[in-house]
Design brief:
Elements (H helix, E strand, L loop, with lengths): L6 H23 L6 H24 L9 H17 L1 E3 L2 E3 L1 H18 L3 H25 L3 E10 L4 H9 L4 E10 L4 E10 L6 H12 L7 E6 L1
Antiparallel strand pairs: 1-2, 3-5, 3-6, 4-5
C-alpha cells in the first residue's frame, strides 16, 4: 500500500521548483537556450527523484534496497543534459556556465527533495552570487584581455615571420593553431593573443594588422574574434 504524499514532500517539490526558476531566470536574462523553464524542470525533477528514492527502497518488503540508487543516477545523468548546453562557435566555446548551472539546479532539487530546505536555499543563494556579483568583480580586477586572430595567407609563407610581427606589438601569443588547405593552396593560422589591457581597442587591432600587412605576403583574410 502506497503512502499518501506528505506535506514535507510538497514543500520540497515547491521549493525546488522556485529555486530552480531563480537560477533559470538569471540565465534567461542573458539569452541562454537553457533558461527559466529548463532549470525549473531540472530542479523539480531532481527533487521528485530524490523524494521517490526512499519510497522505492521500502517497496520491496524484506529485500535490502539502496535508497540512494536513483539519486546516484540523477548525478551522472545530468551530465548529458549539461553537455547539450555547451556549444562550439568557431574557436570559442559557449555554454559552460549554463551547463554548470543545470548541474547546480539538480543539486538544489536533490537537496530540497531530501528535506534539507535551508541547505537548498543556501546553495541557490551562493550560486546567484557567483552568477550575478562575480562577473563585476572579475571585470574590475581584470588587467588583461584576450582575442582570437585568424590570418589566411598563401601556403608557402613563413609562419614564423608572421608570428614575430605579432609578438613585436607588445602582446603575448598564448596558442597558435594551423590549418593547411592544399586544395586552395592556403594556410590559416589562429592565434590566441593576450593584450595587457582590460579592453582591446581598434587602435590595438589596427597596429597588429598593419604589422602583418607590412610583410607583403599576399594576405587572403584577417579576422578578429573575441574570446
Amino acid at each position: 500500500m502506497f503512502e499518501p504524499i506528505s506535506t514535507e514532500m510538497i514543500i520540497g517539490l515547491c521549493l525546488a521548483a522556485l529555486l530552480g526558476a531563480i537560477l533559470g531566470f538569471e540565465r534567461e536574462r542573458h539569452g541562454r537556450p537553457a533558461g527559466l523553464r529548463t532549470h525549473l524542470l531540472v530542479s523539480l525533477g531532481s527533487a521528485g527523484f530524490m523524494s521517490l528514492s526512499p519510497l522505492v527502497a521500502e517497496m520491496g518488503k524484506g529485500v535490502p534496497a539502496d535508497p540512494g540508487r536513483i539519486a546516484a543516477q540523477v548525478v551522472s545523468g545530468i551530465g548529458f543534459l549539461g553537455a547539450g548546453a555547451i556549444v562550439k562557435e568557431g574557436v570559442n566555446i559557449r555554454g559552460l556556465t549554463t551547463a554548470a548551472c543545470l548541474w547546480i539546479a539538480a543539486a538544489i532539487g536533490m537537496t530540497a527533495g531530501a528535506g534539507f530546505y535551508l541547505e537548498a536555499v543556501l546553495i541557490c543563494g551562493l550560486s546567484m552570487v557567483a552568477l550575478v556579483i562575480f562577473p563585476y568583480i572579475e571585470s574590475w580586477q581584470r588587467s588583461h584581455s584576450y582575442q582570437f586572430l585568424e590570418v589566411t595567407m598563401p601556403l608557402k609563407v613563413d609562419v614564423n615571420a608572421v608570428l614575430e610581427k605579432i609578438r613585436a606589438q607588445k602582446v603575448s601569443l598564448k596558442r597558435v593553431d594551423m590549418d593547411r588547405d592544399y586544395t586552395n593552396d592556403t594556410l590559416k593560422i589562429t592565434c590566441l593573443i593576450r593584450f595587457f589591457t582590460r579592453e582591446v581597442t581598434d587602435q590595438d587591432a589596427l597596429e597588429i594588422v598593419e604589422a602583418i600587412e607590412s610583410l607583403d605576403i599576399g594576405l587572403k583574410r584577417i579576422v578578429w574574434q573575441p574570446r
